[in-house]
Known about the structure:
This protein is α+β, with helices and mostly antiparallel strands. The protein is 46% helix and 12% strand.
Amino acid sequence: MNVKQCNNLKIGKMNAIDSFIKKALILILIVLIQLPGIAQSNYQTIKVSSDVELIQISPNAYIHISYSEVPSYGQVASNGLLFVNGHRAFLFDTPMTDSLTKELVSFIEDSMKLKIAGFVPNHWHADCMGGLRYLQDQKIESYANQMTIDFSRSKNLPVPDHGFKDSIELHLGNKPIKCYYFGAAHSLDNIVVWIPTEKILFPGCMVRSLNAKDLGNTADGDLTAYPKTIEALISKFSTVSIVVPGHGQYGGLELLTHTRELAAAKSQVEENSREQWLTYMDKIAGPVISSLASDNLKEKMTIALSNTSDNPEQRKKVAYLEAFARTLCGISPWLNGEGGSAKEIALRNQYRGWALNGIANAIDSTKNDYMLWTGGQPLVDASFFALALIRCPWLWDHMDDKLHERVVAVLQSTRATIPAFSNWILFPAMIEAFFCKYDQPYDPVRIEYGIREFSQQWYVGDGMFSDGMHFVLDYYNSYVIQPYLLNILDAVNPGNESFNWFSPKLEKITSRYAELQERSINADGSFPAFGRSIVYRGGAFHLLAEMALRHKLPESLTPAQVRCALTEVIIKTINNPQTFTKDGWLTIGLYGNQPDLADVYINTGSLYLCTTIFLPLGLPPDDPFWTNPDAPWTSKKIWNGMDVPADHSLRGQ
Length: 653
């Protein structure tokens, strides 16, 4: 073979290789085009208006995207689905408003020449059925989970026309549309839509896009059920081609697995903290609130007194109001909240009913559990009752006029009691703040007196007030003083802004004291047992819990480390076998039954101030306080050899 022949052979081989590579590349490109993530490039985005778009994702399906301003979130893009067969279409979810829905529907009908045959919302939120009223005006039939219909009625929203429970099969011409309810997740009523001919799954907001780092808003959902629901989707729709989330970029099966991972992680944190807190809260609060609701608290409650009680007969009489008011004060933010697991929602609803019945019994002189509202100690606990109602507008809003009148009357009766010159001056101030918040006639002088004494006379520095003329080291800055000052200002300032001058200073003081509180929690959940009223147990951290509830923790403290620290306090002070009587009532003590720790005024009812440690249950389940991974608190870091920044006092206040 000569050189020329050899070269020709090489050229022939190279041409053959080039031809093979070109064919392979074409084949790969054809395959890639069939994939959901690549196929979208074949379709143009259709601009319906400045706030509404359509993206074709298959020959017969479009995603509609609408943009709306949402408080605390800014502009939010929401996805829905449009399925087409011939000249008819089915709509799944609407934009958030009737006006945006009108823009979308007008384009579908006028420009695309399609008739909308029906509508299905994923769940009751505005980003699913905010435009239902407009659709109903256009005589478009709607189909929804029966729970969605029930939620809509209870919230005075437009109500879908037809309901189903587990599933329903609709038809668009000869093509089926299957709607399923697999369980709670993002919301309790969320469903999925499956279009078999397209292999498209529209699970809406329960499924997250790949770039989502968390589950988003789950305040109305069930974090315990969430992973199980997503797992059911993965099992049922393993052959899915396109998955459309409620927000963000669509994709394939990987969106379901991604969401499963997010849900599993969040559910684990939730189960290890919030559920645990609810169990402890229910164990403490349940006997008090349920017994009072049945009008037999005085019959059932076991009363123990200090071994050095100053007035045993009187202390027994006031014990019931102490137990009731302090318990309600601690659980009131949770009563005012919404969301959580199905179990938590049921528990909250039960407690709401108990609380309303209990209040009615406590202020009705014809009932067995009518409380003593006049005198020295009743002033204290009437103020805790007032604070509970300030923290829980839901209770006030769900009382009838007669109950309102009786509540106002018993609180007004406390005005005859002159408070001691100490933290007691905040008790009438809190009661008047309640009147101010709910537009009742109130005495501003009592509020002014309490605020000015503490702000101008009794602040001693480094985040602490004296309890009267002389400073003593105890936990009253947390039991009463600082939480009371914060809540009084909250109730009064929105109406007249009288104390705006004090709010910035108080914010710095409470922030510093929260730091001191967190640092005082030892690695095992114990804390220094000094000062009077130490048998209030976790109530010693009323202020730290309040700051977590308000999202006002100092920058030096993360929500997770505070959650973990407070959890250890709860476990330490409650888990001792001698903490409860055989009938479930708290015993006097800090770590078990320790009656000698009690001051002269202590009785069983006094102990229920410990419920104030549960204030963060008023935060929604998806709050970082509950969802962030466990983190060590300061003492745990230090006594495990970790290096931490030095502590510094608050100066110049």
